[in-house]
Amino acid sequence: MGFERIFSYNLGREAGVTAEQVRKDFSQFGIRGKKKGEYCIEELLDNLNDIFGKNEQEDVILVGMGNIGKALARYECGFVKKRKYIIAAFDIDPSKYKKNADVQVLPMEMMPRFIRDNGITVAIIAVPGISAQDVCNQLIDCGIRGIMNFAPIILKAPPEIVIDNINLCNSLEGVIHCAKRGKDDFGCE
Questions:
Q1: Beta bridge partners of 69
Q2: Residues 131, 97: Cα–Cα separation, whole Å
Q3: For residue 187, what is the DSSP state?
Q4: Which of 31, 33, 84, 90 is the most buried (most CB within 10 A)?
Q5: Is there a domain that residue 92 lies in?
Q6: Domain of 136?
Q7: Which pTM was predicted?
Q8: What's the rounded Cα separation, in Å, for the pair 179 and 60?
Q9: Whether residues 30 and 117 fall in one domain
C-alpha cells in the first residue's frame, strides 16, 4: 500500500490485541519501535522473517508415499515459496521407489543414514495410523526433532520433540460445525 511505517495500535487492531501487547511481544524478540510504537515496516518484516526462519532453506523428509504423501511431494509451490524442501521420501513399498524423481523415494532402511548425512531435523509422516507411532519412534531415534503428522492418530513423543498432529477429517468437521452454527457460536473463528 506504499506505507513505510506502521504503529503498534494498527498491528494490535488487526491481530485483535492491544498495542501494549504488540510492543511487549516484540520486545521479547528484541524488536524495538520508535516513539509511540512506530515501526519501520521493512525492518519489522526482516526481523519477523529472521525469527521464523523464513530466510533460511530447510530440508525435510517425507515418510509414506500414499495419496497424502504424493500430494505433499507435489505441493512444490507452497513449500518452495517458503524455502522448505522435501528432499526425499521413504516408503516400505518397493514399487514406489524412484531415485530419479523430483522427490526421490527410497527404502525405509536408507532413512537413518540419509537423515544423518543430510542433517535433517524435521520430517512429515503420511503413513497409515497403524504404523505411525513406530515411524515416529524411528524418526526420533534418527535425530528428528520436529514432526508434521498426517496419520490419523495422536503421536506420543518426549516433550522436547515438536509434533503437529494434523487431522484433516477433524478440521473439516470443525468447519462444517462452525458453518452450520455461525462463527460466534462455540468459539468458531
A1: none
A2: 19
A3: G
A4: 90
A5: yes
A6: 58-169
A7: 0.69
A8: 35
A9: no
